[in-house]
Each structure stands twice: as C-alpha cells, then as structure tokens.
Design brief:
Blueprint (H helix, E strand, L loop, with lengths): L4 E7 L18 H8 L2 E3 L2 E2 L5 H10 L28 H5 L4 E7 L18 E5 L10 E4 L7 E3 L6 H15 L5 E6 L20 H23 L6 E7 L29 E4 L8 E3 L3 E2 L3 H8 L16 H5 L9 E5 L2 E6 L3 E4 L1 E4 L2 E4 L7 E4 L15 H18 L21
Parallel strand pairs: 1-8, 1-9, 2-11, 3-12, 4-5, 4-8
Antiparallel strand pairs: 2-10, 5-6, 6-7, 9-10, 13-14, 14-15, 15-18, 16-17
Length: 426
C-alpha cells in the first residue's frame, strides 16, 4: 500500500482568531472551516518561536532553533547565517521514499552553504529566499536537486495563486509515488497585495482579502486532490509560523507576533484533514507544537528518527488518529535565545515581557507571573499568590529549561544587528 502524501500549508503571520473555525467573525474562511469540520483541529497548538526564521527552523527540524544558532531575531538580507546543512529535516527524514518540494518562502539562509533549499532534502523549489518585504528580491525555481536555479521577477499580487498552482503541479506530477510538500505562503505578511483576479470584497480590507484568497485556494486544492483520486491518500495540514503582526486577530490571546512570552505571538491555528484516516470533526485541546510535525510524519510513515538525535518535538499521531492526551508535559517558549515562559496543560509561567523598548526579566524583578489558562486564557491575572506550590513547581521546570537550552547559544557566533536601514525585522 502506498504511504500517505503530506502537504503542510504554512501561512505567514496569520492569527489564531482569523479563521472562523477558531472563533473569527469578520474574515470569511468557509473552506478552512470545512477542512476543520472534516478533520482534526487542535486548539492549543504553538509555533516554536514568535517570529519567522526560528519558527520555521523548529518546524523543519523538530528541534528548537537555539540548537541551530537561529534563535535570535530573523535572518536579514545582509546576513550570512542559516540552518546548518547537516540539520535533520522533514524532507531528509522521508527520503528516499518521498518526492519533496518547498513551494514559497524559505527564510533559513540565502547564501552558501545554507542555500538553496535542495541542500536540506527538497527535490524541487519554487519561491523566495526570505520575506517579500525584504530587498533585493527575486523568485527562484529548480525542478531537481542538481538543477540550476532560475531567477525571475516577483509578481506580488499573484504569489499565493502561483504557489498553490505549483503545489498542485508537483502533486500531479508525483501522484504515483508518495510526496511531501511544504507550501510556505507569504500571506498575510505585509506588504498586502490582494490578487486583482481573485477579490472577495472582504469586510476586513486588504488583510481580509489575502486571507480569503488563501481560503479559496485551499478549497481549489481540495477539489483538485479529489479529482486526481488523491484525497484519501493525502494528509493536508494548515498552520501559521507565528501570530499576527500589524493586522489580524490573535483571538482571545494576549499580544501578537514578537511579543515576548504571551500566547498571541505563539498560539496559531492547526487543522489536519485526511478522509478515511483522520476522524472528522475532532477538536482536541492537547498541547502541541510545530516541533511535532517531523516526528509525527515520520511515525505515520513508519520511520524512526536517528537514535542519536534528541528531538524537542513529539509524535502526535495518537492525538490526530484517536483521542489521546498530549505527549508533552510542557512546552518551552523562547524570546530570542532566552527562555521566556513555560506552558503545561493547565498552567503558564512567564518570566519575560516587553515595555516600550525594554525587555524585562520579570522574575529577576521579583514578579514572575503564573496564569491558569483554564480560567484565564487571556493571561490577564496572575495567580502565583493563590497557588504558591504550583508557582514553585513551574519555576523549577523553567529553570531546568534555562539550564538545558540557553547555553546552546554559546556554540554559535554572536548575532550582529544589520547595519542597513533597509533591513528590518520580519
């Protein structure tokens, strides 16, 4: 029996509250809502970082970005850093059985040896080296690991359309063998350039237009997979690299992209659908992370990670296929290379936040915060004084995480801020 195919759709800066299935009421997302109704939706799914590059590193490797020297901020056009070429990634993990493609945004290094993405196990690439608000910018493509990259002009309003078209073309070309596609969209990251040929008249303005275009293309993708006879053999997952930036909704959660320890920067949508394999209409509050995609896809494909590789992600297959509890006892949240918070099933312990330009170590000022997320998902009222034993346990967990992870940053050269005014945070 042919193994399942996998398509991961990764939105860029999409908020938890932007989808109807997660409580959104302004942007219209009927296809993603239907995808959730026909599949599994996780309500407590976290990006592994609150900004782009480290989150993408976590998704691809199943390891926190600090292990790879990418925890601090995002990669800028003037940088020469990137994901180490020896990193174990999802496409490498699925080789040699799977055809693999990256369609969309890379943003894990754009100079050798971190470029092109084929160095990390992808057979094909069509997309951008980094965010589409950075310069210089071109669209690159290669249809084989040893093929030269072609370069063309970026058609900003048509990026989402072209990325979905390329995804469908790759799926169709490889329909007789297993395939893995990471469809890494540039929307709804600014600049917002709605497709003039696919306007919906969204009540949420330009931001709503680009999200509704994503939704419409998800519907077209599902229809085409059905027509190709690939619907039941293909797991399609949808998520975001972090919370929303200047626009978008983080739902009931506090703060936004880049916002230190608060859930609004990390908590993102997650939907997975595969008719006949995943149960329809399942909603799970199991604690999960984009770190879990690598071990989960490996488990579903009958593969095991190298014995000497320590993953931070966990296998979610029992959560997706059944009604199992989370395989995580805790999830660590980083703000750059510092542990900012720690989440367990019920509790969240926060030790870093921002005020104006200040990155404040709350615990070193005698003000660590403990939140009961069952009662207060918006992280508004600390209950550390009411639950001192819980606060002490969470503090111990966080200190263990600090001791384990923060020294890893010392293995890499210190980050130097870009000198050019044209370089700015993603």
């Amino acid at each position: 029996m042919k193994p399942s195919n996998y398509i991961i759709i990764l939105a860029d800066d999409l908020g938890y509250g932007d989808l109807g299935c997660d409580g959104g009421r302004i942007i219209r997302t009927p296809n993603l809502d239907r995808m959730a109704a026909e599949g599994v939706r996780l309500t407590d799914f976290y990006a592994s970082a609150n900004v782009c590059s480290p989150s993408r590193a976590g998704l691809l490797t199943g390891q926190y970005a600090i292990r790879h020297g990418l925890a601090h901020e995002v990669i800028q056009p003037s940088d020469s850093i990137g994901l180490p070429p020896g990193a174990f990634t999802i496409p490498k993990a699925l080789k040699p059985d799977y055809a693999t493609a990256l369609i969309g945004k890379w943003h894990l290094g754009h100079v050798a040896p971190h470029w092109p993405p084929m160095a990390y196990g992808f057979d094909a690439f069509y997309g951008l080296p980094y965010s589409h608000d950075m310069r210089p910018l071109a669209l690159y493509a290669a249809d084989a690991p040893d093929a030269p990259l072609t370069e063309s002009r970026v058609d900003f309003p048509k990026l989402t359309q072209h990325f979905f078209e390329r995804t469908l073309a790759f799926a169709e070309a490889n329909q007789d063998r297993p395939f893995f596609i990471l469809l890494a969209l540039t929307a709804p990251h600014v600049p917002l350039r709605p497709n003039p040929d696919d306007l919906t008249g969204s009540p949420a303005g330009a931001y709503g237009e680009v999200v509704e275009e994503i939704d419409r293309n998800v519907g077209r993708l599902m229809e085409r997979l059905r027509a190709l006879g690939l619907e039941e053999s293909t797991m399609v997952a949808f998520t975001s690299d972090n919370g929303p930036w200047f626009e978008g909704s983080s739902g009931p959660f506090r703060d936004r992209k880049g916002g230190a320890a608060w859930d609004g920067g990390y908590r993102v949508p997650f939907i997975a659908r595969q008719p006949g394999t995943l149960p329809a209409g399942r909603v799970s509050g199991a604690l999960a992370s984009n770190l879990d995609l690598l071990p989960t896809l490996m488990a579903l494909s009958g593969k095991a990670p190298p014995a000497d590789l320590e993953l931070d992600g966990r296998d979610l297959s029992a959560v997706l296929l059944g009604d199992a509890p989370s395989p995580h006892e805790e999830i660590v949240l980083f703000n750059n290379a510092q542990v900012a918070a720690l989440r367990t099933a019920r509790w969240k312990y926060i030790v870093r936040s921002y005020y104006r330009t200040y990155d404040i170590p709350l615990d070193r000022h005698g003000y660590p915060l403990l939140f009961d997320l069952e009662q207060d998902p918006g992280e508004n009222y600390s209950v550390a004084a009411l639950f001192p034993d819980v606060a002490a346990e969470m503090k111990a967990r966080l200190e263990r995480a600090r001791d384990k992870y923060e020294p890893m940053a010392a293995a890499f050269p210190p980050y130097v801020a870009p000198a050019s005014a044209a370089d700015h945070p993603d």
